[in-house]
Amino acid sequence: MVDFSKELNEVQHNAVVDFNGPSLIIAGAGSGKTRVLTYRIAYLLSHGVNPRSALALTFTNKAAREMKERIGSLVGEQFSRRLWMGTFHSIFARILRTEAEYIGYKSSFTIYDTTDSKSVIKACIKELNLDDNVYKVGDVMGRISMAKNHLVQAKVYQNNHTLTAEDAATRKPRIADIYLLYEQKCKLSDAMDFDDLLLNTNILFRDHPEVLKKYQNMFKYILVDEYQDTNRAQYLIVKKLAETHHNVTVVGDDAQSIYAFRGARIENILNFRNDYPEYKEYKLEQNYRSTQTIVNAANSVIRYNSRQLQKNCFSDDEVGDKIAIIESYTDQEEAFLVASSISEAIYTKHADYNDFAILYRTNAQSRAMEDALRRKNIPYKIYGGLSFYQRAEVKDIMAYLRLSVNHDDDEAFKRVVNYPARGIGSTTMERLQYAASAASMSLWDAVTTLDFSETGVKPAAVKKLTEFTELIMSFTTQAFTTDAYDFALNVAQRSGMISVMREDKSPEGLGRLENLEELLNSIKEFSDTYQREEDEVDAVVSITEYLQDVALLTDADNEKPEDRNKVSLMTVHSAKGLEFTYVYVVGMEDNLFPGGGALMSPVDLEEERRLFYVALTRAEKKVTLSFSQTRYRWGNIVSNPPSRFLKEIDEEYLESSVFHRQIDDADDEEDDNNDDRQPIIRKPERTIIVRRPSLAKPHQPSSDFRPDDPSEIEVGMDIEHERFGFGKIEAVEGAGGERKAVVTFKEHGKKTLLLKFAKLKICR
Hints:
The protein is α/β, with parallel strands linked by helices. It contains 32 helices and 21 strands. The strands form five sheets. The protein has a six-stranded parallel sheet. A six-stranded parallel sheet has the order 9-14-13-10-12-11. Strands 20-19-18-17-21 form a five-stranded antiparallel sheet.
């Protein structure tokens, strides 16, 4: 029997032991939701529940793996091994492989990653003679993805007037045609993209009730992590599977629902009580991650959202530092000040680089931060960069492995048919693709079945294509019966990839060979550690199982050891689920965070506020927020007011009330200029301790304004600033690039400026 008494508080304990019936576990940030979910599963297994009857769904492979290992340590691997636990996509892919014939697929179907999908969509755009500057691949793929997440197939899309009218309004009236052709090409290649794994599971359960009944009877207990992030397709699958037993447990936090842009529906968690009227609710409100100040500051912000499940998060940790705010004049200065702050903290607090994270609203903001960190010699890593599995040489060997398992995989075929070079040129491939398309068959079937005498493909090329398919066939005969590592090594050698790479002695060539070796190492590690069910432990771990696993990896699953002690740079969306000792949130300006589009939509503004809540609650000890008075946008200098979210933090949690005063002043000026415009959400009345008159109008620089060398600035000088106007230097401190000046301006009061960015003109 598992003893939970020492590791769970009272509410957590109740949420663990009461495992029958529908349960809603509302888990605030840092409240131990993973522990509760893990222990709940372990508890029901320890009470005689068959592991095969428990389905646990997560959003990352890493989370599933760690939970499974912990469950194994609590109740034994013989139980945890047999659990149906994994991401939505991996679990549904497993079901689809078992039931593939019902929906017209082979069990060996390929799972296309984003690069594959983009390649197919690009081919569709070209085949339909559309302008790729109008029909941008990313935009089209996003539109198709959204349709699939709402269970709209291509033919339904074509006949939906609302959807086609929206496309016409954006001057992309042929998206429906692209979608239909994309769907056909994927089917011919016996391939599914990520969204298809959800769409096709819904189709399977909708059209084959006997299959649905099989899984309804199998899964007596269903547990879902991060329920606020589920989309319509995921919601419907869970609801269908839970219809028989109603033992469904969902864990999540509506305050962290931030993925509406990719189909997530906050309504799924908000309406759980309507779907299951007999539900039980548990609120995990104690935050074990952050200081009291951080938790209270986050609470003070999220209270302005109207659509939420009420909870009162709290922390028994230390009170902690108040939230710091950095004001800068330019985005370059903002980056410099953030990097300087990190550098100082590393030396004064003896912190490691990986204790720090810089979060931003958009990826474009990383550039200035990267430049500043490099100048300070601070190592950093960017989440969402080029994944190991997206590198060319890795994609090449993976294409060989995929094609060996699924001959109809056209994307894999095109990638390696002439790599290493075997004399099959672009003209041959164009003619082959035309012939295959005309016959509605895959490239492989075209090579192995068509008569090429009338296609224009020359006999010599046909011979080379045939030799290529024979090579792949020789791999196929071993793919399902040979150990994954041995098979992959054989393919890498016999395909010629290893010998070609060894001939390239350049640093880049050596790097590619090292990446190929690392991939083979990962296959070996997978083969050695892969957990089978007890009755299959002696079976060979084949390459098909590795391909299934790697196709569903996310960036969170791919961290390399050498990246572990670096400052992390990422969007706030990417930071979800992570935690750091010190967090910097940069670009805190209206029209950036929150984004401009959200300012006119109450629903979108609430999502942006939830995003800010997520940013704050990533921190354990300290949060620093920064904003810039000016920044470059499309080559022009723009000025936005400080983010309204800064004003929503109660003043008692900030290091200074100066920033509240500035924001209030900016609000006054905006109200003066926009008397007829009503703000979306009014902040409740509160006492402002100190208040200045409205800010003066922006200064118009003198006609001969030219900034002087910062090294010439001295105490007592009269100066001119291009925005703040005329002032006097009261003090100068620091040296070199970190030299600062305290300036009293006639219209704007006292300010501290970093001289390398201030652009001051000496009044002589």
